[in-house]
Amino acid sequence: MSGTLVLVRHGQSEWNLQNLFTGWRDPALTEQGHGEAKKAGGLLAAKGLKFDIAYTSELTRAQVTCQHILDGVGQSDLNTVKNLALNERDYGDLSGLNKDDARTKWGEEQVHVWRRSYDVPPPGGESLRDTGARVWPYYMHVIQPHVLRGETVLVAAHGNSLRALIMALEGLSGEDVIKVELNTGVPIIYKLNADSTIASKEVVEG
Q: Which pathway, metabolic or otherwise, does it act in (predicted)?
């Protein structure tokens, strides 16, 4: 029996548009972001997907994305679990700063290390490994059991929390996972075998 896990990064937020470090800050989706999330719902509906349960973070941009998708598949009232384990990586002192301004303050190389290394956190924030340390147990103990029972599960979250989840799913190294790019509002559908290995993976771009 194979279950289905659908991962979606939230639609474009106002701070994505403004090129700001966001982390645990809580900006709303842009008009484009709402459109991306609604499109994701339409794409998943076209595939005939129905969910048994949905998970999202405690941040508005992910929750609204999740709701648009559920509306799109005709499941507006589906049980949806919100948990900070799925929150975006905490960018600490960088949160709210323009990325170009941060490069001016700390230097291009240092900011690149904070953004793209696996285990070097920005000041006061989390590395990708730190983010994984909260995502992995939550996935293993809370989300994965539903999938392994053959259910269809939606996770609407963030670039870095989903990177960490994909790292566990696909067995990626710290070096490989930092190269994973996730576009806003684009669903990734995994079919998992009963032993948690991946039967198939599909990136759904309309």
A: Carbohydrate degradation; glycolysis; pyruvate from D-glyceraldehyde 3-phosphate: step 3/5
